[in-house]
Write a structure and sequence with these properties.
Blueprint lengths: L10 H52 L3 E6 L12 E6 L4 E6 L7 E5 L3 E4 L10 E7 L2 E8 L5 E4 L16
Antiparallel strand pairs: 1-2, 1-5, 2-3, 4-6, 6-7, 7-8
Length: about 170
């Protein structure tokens, strides 16, 4: 006579599986939220870096100075980097490009002036400084611009003054 063997989980095994699934599902939203926030912050950094490269290239190719600045209204430069970024020609204040970041961010600029200006040779002698995006008063990332107009990604352990104060320009 053949014995039938039951092919199912015991109550203890089923309870253990449900508990593990519950733990995993309780941890997953925190992890996804962290990953989404990190990706948004990196996207902001990459967009800002692309605009800095674009305005420097525009200055070199047209042999005219160009400015990248922050704007609260999208039309005039006022140092508000969280709302709009403008690429303008300073001699006639013509706006070449407007960019609005996808999400509200706490990007701040601390430097000699409230805007980044590139000369026709690609340097930024009066616009050296640092951009930082701050999360809970510590920098998530920093971009540093030197007088030669070069941009580098700074360590997040380097001090970012704008994380503790409000440098929105003025």
């Amino acid at each position: 006579m053949k014995q039938r063997q039951q092919k199912a989980f015991s109550l203890a095994e089923l309870t253990m599986c449900v508990c593990l699934i519950g733990i995993i599902l309780s941890i997953a939203p925190m992890t996804w939220g962290f990953l989404i926030r990190n990706n948004q912050e990196q996207a902001s950094r990459d967009a800002l870096l692309a605009h800095l490269v674009q305005v420097r290239t525009l200055s070199i190719t047209t042999q005219r100075p160009h400015v990248l600045c922050g704007s609260s209204d999208g039309n005039t430069c006022d140092g508000e980097w969280a709302r709009h970024w403008l690429i303008i020609t300073p001699h006639d204040n013509r706006v070449h490009q407007r960019h609005q970041p996808h999400h509200a961010s706490s990007i701040c600029w601390s430097g000699f002036s409230q805007q980044v200006q590139y000369a026709p040779n690609g340097t930024s002698p009066t616009s050296n400084g640092r951009f930082a995006l701050c999360r809970e008063k510590t920098p998530a990332w920093q971009l540093v611009i030197n007088r030669q107009g070069r941009v580098r990604l700074a360590s997040t352990t380097e001090e970012a003054n704008c994380c503790t104060t409000d440098h929105t320009g003025g």
